Amino acid sequence: MPPSYEEKRFDAVAKRGRLRLVASPDGAEDSVTIHQDARIYVGTFESGQHASLDVKSNRRAYVHIVRGEIEVNDTRLLAGDAAKLEGADTIRLANGRDAEVMVFDLP
């Protein structure tokens, strides 16, 4: 497959209080297209905002806290922390404080 390059801007409103799909194998939801079996989501969260993402049984998830702090499946994580979730049906994000989060849906 020949190399390719794609760039898009996702404004702050599209990521506030929710997980916004930013990269996927099929360009779903106007995300950039990647040639991997992965989906990448980004979101920003403050207190009172929450989001969840279902994880299929044959998949796993990796959650990285870019900045701030947030609860991931009831565990408090700080900037630079990460969680590798295997066997979890759902990723639940809640009680953020200036939090920016990346979630990777992986095989």
Report on this structure:
- The chain is mostly beta strands and 107 residues long.
- It has one domain (13-106): Jelly Rolls, CATH 2.60.120.10.
- Helix content is 4%, strand content 54%.
- The chain contains one helix and eight strands.
- It has one helix at 12-15, and strands spanning 20-24, 32-33, 39-45, 50-54, 60-72, 75-78, 82-86, 90-106.
- Strands 1, 2, 3, 4, 5, 6, 7 and 8 form an eight-stranded mixed beta sheet that branches.
- A hairpin with a 2-residue loop joins strand 5 (60-72) and strand 6.
- It is globular and about 40 Å long.
- The two termini are 21 Å apart.
- The model has no long low-confidence stretch (mean pLDDT 96).
Give a short overview:
The mean pLDDT is 96. The longest helix is centred in the first third of the chain and has 4 residues, at 12-15. The protein starts with 11 loop residues before the first helix and ends with a strand.
